[in-house]
Amino acid sequence: MKSLGTNAPYLPGFDAPDISREPTMTRLLLVDDHEETRIKVREQLTQGGLIKIVGEAATSDEAWRMAKELLPEMVLLDLHLPGFIQTHDLIKRLVSLRNGKVLVFASQSKAAEVQGLLDCGASGYVMKDDPPALLRMAIVMVQKGNNNVLTPNLPRHITHLSQDERHILTYITMRGKLNKAAERMGLTDEEFNEHIESLVEKLELEDADKLVKWAKKHGFQV
User: Fold this and answer.
1) Concatenated DSSP letters for 139-165?
2) β-strand 102-106 against 26-31: which pairing, if any?
3) Mind listing the domains of the chain with CATH numbers?
4) Closest to 32 (Cα-Cα) out of 14, 16, 17, 45
């Protein structure tokens, strides 16, 4: 297999991968409950020879059983699967296996859910409508040990939000005025306003009203 070379391109939204070593084949378990999606992704990923799909699963329970049997180097995981094992628990189980890595494969870009998935052990979050070349690059990067490999469709600051900040973004989308959110969180108005000002600055927004709209747009709702 030929080397990619030092002038190989990288995709917007990702840091340049380490291409100093010869690329190796990644053994991947494809998990999605729609057969049409699996067929499409299988065709996209097997081009280029860097990825070998060793199995396919349609439910969370089947994914866990096959992962234990096949020990893939990576699982490309759909978010909403039928089965008894919930997504966060499944990710924790998968990454506990030898060399286990998980790349979440979502149909919608909900920034609110990303950090929770990364906290469970997922190495990245990509979209089903991302270009095939970007998806393949994300898989290669995760295989090389990169974390927080995210689709460019997500806000660039999303992994810099603390748990408290994510809670605030959820509270401010609830019905009622902003000062009601402070009351719900047990904060004084002054403390709450400091958090709001900090978030507005961090997310490079204009004011608190824009912050509420941003939070709703990116799924920070109960």
Assistant:
1) HHHHHTT---EE-TTS-TTGGG--HHH
2) unpaired
3) 26-150 (3.40.50.2300), 161-217 (1.10.10)
4) 45
Tell me: pLDDT of 110 over 90: no
Q: Please state, in angstroms and as integers, the Cα–Cα distance from residue 24 to each residue in 27, 104, 200, 204, 209, following that order.
A: 10, 21, 43, 40, 49
Which of the four pLDDT bands, split at 50, 70 and 90, describes residue 175?
A: low
Residue type (1 letter), 55? G
CB atoms closer than 10 angstroms to residue 138: 27
Residue 58 pLDDT class (50, 70, 90 cuts)? very high
Q: pTM for this one?
A: 0.76
Tell me the CA distances in angstroms from 129 to 29, 42, 152, one per residue in order: 19, 14, 11
Q: What is the DSSP letter of 77?
A: E
- Residue 121: CA atoms inside 13 Å, Cβ hemisphere, count? 18
List pLDDT tens digits, range 77-95. Answer: 999 999 999 999 999 999 9
